[in-house]
Amino acid sequence: MAQSKDTVQTAYDLVADDYARLLPDTRAETALDLAVLDAFVARVRDEGDVLDAGCGAGRMARHLADRGCRVRGVDLSPRMIAAGRRAHPDLDLTVASLADLPFEDGRFAGVMAWYSTIHTPDEELPGVLAELVRVLRPGGHLLVAFQAGEGVVDLAESYGRHGHDVVLERYRRTVGTMADLLVRAGCREVARMVRAPEGKEAEDQAVLLVRRR
Fold first, then answer.
1. Which residues form the Methyltransferase domain (predicted)?
2. Domain limits for position 148
3. Where are the alpha helices (DSSP H) in 112-174?
4. Is residue 133 classed as helix, strand or coil in its secondary structure?
5. pTM of this prediction?
6. pLDDT tens digit string along 106-159?
7. What pLDDT, on the 0 to 100 scale, is given for residue 1?
8. Could you tell me what percentage of the chain is helix, strand and coil, using 3-state DSSP and rounding each to the nearest 5?
């Protein structure tokens, strides 16, 4: 049975405080990751507001804001949003589902989904991507980061090592699969990056930059 939004919300509510403590900023990102983020910022910073879709406790929204972007963040987990508001009281962070964003069509010049689609089952992913594109203005840029590959990863053991008993799965996708879905959602590809795992990572990491047609 496909993983539900309630399951994901419950898991992240449980781990929110530790997550915010262990990942307070972009120190987990590599120089290549940060270069891609800089390329995204250069395209959207002066064009309008930017949405951090799946912002967690706000570390990436902080990164964008510190580089001059006008950022709004949304996340499914109320406790992650609460942690983000404590850490970044100047940022606009709101509880919302990526499948049902509380914004009008074409609201944002840029949308970033930094590892925030990875818990979305395959059958629900096209709808989530379509929703991200819906709130992006024509000509706006969408940046999506995810673990590259195929198959489902059970995260219970990983979180268990940090003392959390959670039920949570992560879905890997190939870059080609994700690119095709984004094209179908109304975008054209601008750039892609796939890098080898570094540090404690076990999988290739992928980023796609696309532009709404």
1. 50-140
2. 5-212
3. 125-134, 156-160
4. helix
5. 0.95
6. 999 999 999 999 999 999 999 999 999 999 999 999 999 999 999 999 887 777
7. 67
8. 35, 30, 35
Task: List the CATH number of the domain containing 197.
Answer: 3.40.50.150
Structure tokens at 108: 């944002």
The span from the CA of 87 to the CA of 60, in Å, is 12
Is the Cβ–Cβ distance between 109 and 135 less than 8 Å? Answer: no
- Residue-wise pLDDT tens digits, 72-96: 999 999 999 999 999 999 999 999 9
Beta bridge partners of 152: 171
Contacts (Cβ under 8 Å, ≥6 apart) of 94: 72, 73, 74, 81, 102
In the numeric block, which tokens belong to residue 63? 């990164």
Segments in the chain forming alpha helices (H): 5-22, 31-44, 59-66, 78-87, 125-134, 156-160, 175-184
79 neighbors 16 (Cβ within 8 angstroms): yes
